[in-house]
Design brief:
Helices cover 42% and strands 15% of the residues. The protein has 157 residues and is α/β, with parallel strands linked by helices. Helix 8 links the parallel strand 4 and strand 5.
């Protein structure tokens, strides 16, 4: 499972603690237990850094990924990657961020972070002949660990 906590601050403004509800549901169903994680692996994702930081404290045994729609103006620095490593197990940047700064994959890996790029879809394969070729490039050449795709049937095997 790869649940995404979308826009937690929006819910907070409406006096709904989305993170609390999510954590309670995970714990109530025993999904935070090692046995459960072996049978039903889960990685939690969010664009909201405060949420991922909170989940690191409340569900420390479940891997967490920080989704990223942009890098800072000067790109992803090693210092920023080290900071992210303090509360997340991986980064999930938009695929154009990875192609624009491909060394981020090796630098993230050197710190023990996974890299999952998004979103690969047949309607937007960029300069590649098709989405399978695009995903293959990102996986084999750039070395990402995983890919979010709208076309799982096109995933290179």
């Amino acid at each position: 499972m790869y649940p995404e906590l979308k826009s937690p601050p929006l819910y907070t403004r409406r006096r709904v603690d989305m993170v609390k509800l999510f954590v309670e549901s995970v714990k109530k169903n025993g999904l935070d237990q090692p046995e459960s994680l072996r049978n039903t692996p889960m990685i939690i994702q969010s664009f909201d850094e405060a949420t991922v930081r909170r989940l690191a404290k409340e569900l420390p045994g479940i891997p967490r990924v920080l989704l990223m729609g942009s890098f800072p103006d000067k790109g992803m620095t090693d210092a920023r990657l080290r900071e992210i490593k303090s509360f997340a197990d991986g980064i999930a940047p938009a695929k154009d961020l990875v192609s624009g700064q491909p060394d981020v994959v090796k630098r993230a890996h050197a710190l023990g972070l996974t890299v999952t790029a998004y979103t690969f879809r047949s309607t937007n394969a960029g300069p590649f002949p098709n989405v399978r070729a695009e995903m293959s490039h990102f996986l084999s050449t750039l070395g990402i660990d995983a890919a979010f795709t709208d076309n799982p049937d096109q995933f290179p095997r």
